[in-house]
């Protein structure tokens, strides 16, 4: 069995990591918004744009357009956008993992091959703390697979890479849980703060609140 993890919801506390950087920018420039408010505005545009993104559009391209839209809405100088995104991308190396991740992923890796399934570019995935916890050959990015969550294609292409092994995906966000289930993947939901299940979509058959429970959970899917 191969088990993939979502990178920026299930494993990484991306809101905390990025908000710290954005809070420093806001303080330096005298902006009224908090780091969390800036992140949420950017993240909302990111997710919306990923719904329609297709190759060869990169995650960097999407993130740049999302930040441009966010700063425009907030009345911030558009000349900041490229430099601010570069700073955010560089800071990814410092974004924290959720506290239960290292031990939880190791527990799954003791029995199965583990990887990532994420809407990022390869270089950005390598920069994250989670990258060191998984098999580098199983870092399945939108760049590698040519598709973005929550489209069906990214999940079916990931399953094809895993074949003949069975693929189980560990997701946290509403769109990732729904996308994986609707694509027919065996899915375990790892509940994280700030993420809920899509009430209009299929319900995850297995849900855990601590990564320590994942080894048992994926074995039973």
From TrEMBL:
It comes from the Bacteria. It holds the Pfam family Hydrolase. The keyword Hydrolase applies. Coiled coil: none annotated. Keywords: Hydrolase. PANTHER family: HALOACID DEHALOGENASE, TYPE II (AFU_ORTHOLOGUE AFUA_2G07750)-RELATED (PTHR43316:SF3), HYDROLASE, HALOACID DELAHOGENASE-RELATED (PTHR43316). This is Haloacid dehalogenase. It comes from Nocardioides deserti.
